[in-house]
Design brief:
This protein is mainly α and 257 residues long. Helix content is 71%, strand content 0%. The structure holds zinc ion.
Length: 257
C-alpha cells in the first residue's frame, strides 16, 4: 500500500505533539495536578521551558538531554515517548489508511501507553485515562467506530464486571487487595474499544503475559504487580489481531479442519 509522504509526515508530527502532551499527562495526572497550569519548568532550576526547548524529540537531542540553564539531565523518557507515539501514528496510517479505524487506534494506543507507564511507575491508573478513555470509546462507537454502540456498551459492562469479580475473588483468596479499582475502570474503557469478546481475549492475554513475566520476578522479592501494564499489551494485541484470533478459535472449537 502506498501512502502520501506529506500525509505520513503529518501523521508522525501529530503523533510527536500528542506524545509531548502525553508526557505532561504522565507527569502530572498521578499527582492530581492541572495539565495546563503552571507552565512546564525545569525540575532542578525552575526555569520555564521555552517553546524552542520544548519541540518533541529534537530539543532533547539538540540540548543533549540537559537543561539549557542549569545543565541538569532531562529524562530519556520524554523523547522516547514522543518518538513512540510519532511512530505509532505513522504505522497506523500505513496499516489503516485515512480511516475512522486509524483514528480510534491512535487514541486507544495513546491511552494504553499512558496507562502502562503510570501503572509501572506509580501503581495507579489515572481516571482521566480510564474513565476519560471510556467516554472517548463510547463517542467513537456512536460515530461509527470499530464496535457499534451496543457492542461498545456491552464490552464496557463486561470489562467492568469481569475485573470486579476477579478483584473480589482475589481479595477473598489473598486477604488483601490484589487488584485496584484502576484496573476495573481501565477494562471498562478497553471494552468500549474492543467489545465483549475483545475483553475476554485481553484479560486472557494479559494474565498469561503477566504470569510469564512477573511470577518469576516476584518469587525473588515480594512486590506489587502493575497488572495494567500487561492488560495494556493484551488490549493492543486484541485491537490489532483480535478478530483473526477469535475467528481462528471459533473454527478450532467447531472442530473443522
Ligand atoms: Zn534547569
Amino acid at each position: 500500500m502506498t501512502v502520501d509522504p506529506v500525509l505520513l509526515a503529518g501523521a508522525v508530527v501529530l503523533g510527536l505533539c500528542i506524545g509531548s502532551f502525553l508526557n505532561v499527562c504522565i507527569l502530572r495526572l498521578p499527582f492530581d495536578r492541572s495539565l495546563t497550569r503552571p507552565r512546564s519548568t525545569c525540575p532542578s532550576c525552575k526555569q520555564p521551558i521555552a517553546w524552542r526547548d520544548n519541540i518533541p524529540v529534537f530539543s532533547w537531542l539538540w540540548l543533549r538531554g540537559k537543561c539549557r540553564w542549569c545543565h541538569a539531565p532531562i529524562s530519556r523518557q520524554y523523547p522516547l515517548i514522543e518518538a513512540l507515539v510519532g511512530l505509532l501514528f505513522g504505522a497506523l496510517l500505513f496499516a489503516y489508511g485515512v480511516t475512522f479505524q486509524a483514528a480510534s487506534a491512535a487514541l486507544f494506543g495513546t491511552l494504553l501507553l499512558g496507562i502502562a507507564i503510570t501503572d509501572a511507575r506509580h501503581y495507579l491508573i489515572p481516571d482521566e485515562f480510564s474513565l476519560g478513555g471510556l467516554v472517548i470509546g463510547m463517542l467513537l462507537s456512536l460515530g461509527g467506530g470499530v464496535p457499534g454502540f451496543l457492542e461498545a456498551l456491552l464490552g464496557a459492562a463486561v470489562g467492568f464486571a469481569l475485573l470486579w469479580v476477579v478483584a473480589r475473588a482475589g481479595e477473598w483468596v489473598f486477604k488483601e487487595e490484589a487488584m485496584g479499582g484502576g484496573d476495573i475502570k481501565m477494562m471498562a474503557m478497553v471494552g468500549s474499544f474492543v467489545g465483549w469478546r475483545g475483553v475476554l481475549l485481553t484479560v486472557f492475554a494479559g494474565a498469561a503475559l503477566g504470569s510469564l513475566i512477573f511470577i518469576p520476578l516476584s518469587l525473588k522479592k515480594k512486590r506489587l504487580v502493575p497488572f495494567g501494564v500487561f492488560l495494556a499489551v493484551g488490549a493492543a494485541v486484541t485491537f490489532v489481531f483480535g478478530d483473526a484470533i477469535i475467528a481462528w478459535y471459533a473454527h478450532f472449537l467447531g472442530g473443522e479442519g
